Amino acid sequence: MAFTDYYKILEIPKTASPDDIKKAYRKLARKYHPDLNPKDKEANKRFQLINEANEVLSDPEKRKKYDQYGEDWAHADQFEKARQSQQSSSRRQSENPFEGDFGSGEYSDFFEQMFGAGAGRRNTKFRGSDYQAELHLSLRDAAKTHQQTLTVNGKNIRITIPAGVENEQVIKLRGHGGPGTNGGPAGDLFITFVIEPDPVFKRSGNDLYTNINLDLYTAVLGGEVMVESLDGKIKLKINPETQNGTKTRLKGKGFPVYKKDGSFGDLYVTYNVLVPQNLTQQQRELFTELSKLK
Questions:
Q1: Is 68 helix (H, G, I), strand (E, B) or coil?
Q2: Would the CA dihedral through 69, 72, 73, 77 be positive or negative?
Q3: pTM of the entire structure?
């Protein structure tokens, strides 16, 4: 199998900073995401390679091993351990040429990995690589428990997303990463949630914030307005002489609390009082009279 250059996959130089890696990954992940390319097998393969490259290069320790060992980076710890064992055995052998168990045991795995299966007598089990993936959700999708299907390495994985997930929250799916070697366990899949901005609400923890416009007459005289919440429209009573920037709290009408059924944050509504425009002559005269009464 040809060597896969993770730097080329992410289209970045080897000197790329962590921020460069993150930006490159997000740009390419969006471009090749299976949801945007449902029938493009090549795009799906590219998406998996992008996730694999990001999983390695975004982790400082893994990146260091990759830069040193290339495609064998996942076995770097075993290589080092075997190398140290070999060096230790070599020292003992030089100190006492009649000691040692040649060709077996402590460093045959190292020879097997570096020079081929014929050099060793055991097959060491290696754990598979972990995978990284991003799942983009709207704010309203994140506010409800629902299921989605991810395509990872050509396999469809159906997951249940609990209501209340946070932006950049990470969950782990055990055993859904890369396959192990020589019967070793599979790696894990780490999914990062990316919550897209909402045109109506801003989220802070479990609380939601929104603005609503009030005409001047309602602000001065009082009345009623409709405000949007996650579960429908709510009628609000406006007190007379409501000032611009006044904020009101709707308890329990915010975002659901993660994995706490029936628990919600609050919804904060800020009133923006609008000054009327394009006044008629009669309206101007009335405002003039009001200013004189002041």
A1: helix
A2: negative
A3: 0.61
- At residue 131, φ and ψ (nearest 5 deg) are -110, 150
Q: What is the pLDDT of residue 42?
A: 85
**Residue 257 structure tokens:** 């609390």
What letter does residue 153 receive in the DSSP assignment?
Answer: T
> Are 163 and 256 within 8 A, CB to CB?
yes
| Sheet with 267-274: strands ordered across | 202-204, 207-215, 267-274, 247-250
- Write 217-226 long-range contacts (CB < 8 A, 24+): 218/242, 219/243, 219/244, 219/271, 219/273
* Residue 176, both tokens: 């859904």
Dist CA 191 CA 148 (whole Å)? 12
Q: Which amino acid is at 98?
A: F
DSSP for residue 124: -
Read off φ and ψ for residue 233, nearest 5 degrees.
Answer: -80, 145
Strand segments, DSSP code E, in 33-167 are 131-137, 146-152, 155-161
Q: Which domains does the chain have, with CATH numbers?
A: 71-119 (no CATH), 128-197 (2.60.260.20), 202-293 (2.60.260.20)
E-only strand ranges, 22-154: 131-137, 146-152
**Residue-averaged pLDDT of the chain:** 83
Distance, first Cα to last Cα, the chain: 86
In three-state secondary structure terms, 120 is: coil
Contact 74, 131 (CB under 8 A): no
Distances from the Cα of 2 to the Cα of 69, 70, 71, 73, angstroms: 15, 12, 10, 15
Q: Which pLDDT score, from 0 to 100, does residue 111 have?
A: 42
What is the per-residue pLDDT across 103-127, written as a single tens digit (0 to 9) for each? 434 444 444 444 444 444 356 788 8
Mean pLDDT of 59-68: 86
